[in-house]
Design a protein that fits this description.
The chain crosses the membrane at residues 12-31. Keywords: Membrane, Transmembrane, Transmembrane helix. By secondary structure, the protein is an alpha+beta fold. It has one domain (28-174). The chain has two helices and eight strands; from the N terminus they run H-E-E-E-E-E-E-E-H-E. Strand 4 and strand 5 (120-121) form a beta hairpin.
Length: 178
Amino acid sequence: MRRPFGFSFVEVLLYVLFIGGMLVVFAGFVIDTLDDRTRGVAALEVQQNSRLATERMLLEIRAAKSIRATSSTFDANLALPINAGKVLSLEMASSTLNPTEFDVAGNILRIRQGATSTFTPLTSNEAQVTNLTFRNLSDGGSRHVGLTLTVEFINPGGRATVYAASTTIRTSVELRNR
């Protein structure tokens, strides 16, 4: 008596379903891993931009001799188009750095040091500044500036749930150079 050679239709069908199920589970795992990586990259970009920008602003404000109040805009979001061209202006000890100014143009935070220099970006093209507000917290004996900075990741292609990353930093700093 001869034994049948090969697989039955039911066995082939079961193997195909099992392998197909495994591929679906694996594809889902790969997609989730890539989305997690993308979220991490977006969060890292926002954190790096906000940290660098905040540290640079705090450094320059601490080193300033005074706030140029007549040239500065306080209590207004400099990232809004209605406030285009408005700045925080600082008088520095070195005349070559006068004035040192911070502004937002095209959702990029910028610094300019010296009246004849051009603005230099402090944030990258992958992040956008959606809020930059300075407050003059000075009183009779101290000179303080409060700042609020909000940085968001630029969302390419409208994939908001994957690329959503934002951070807001609120701090104050005292001018130390008298």
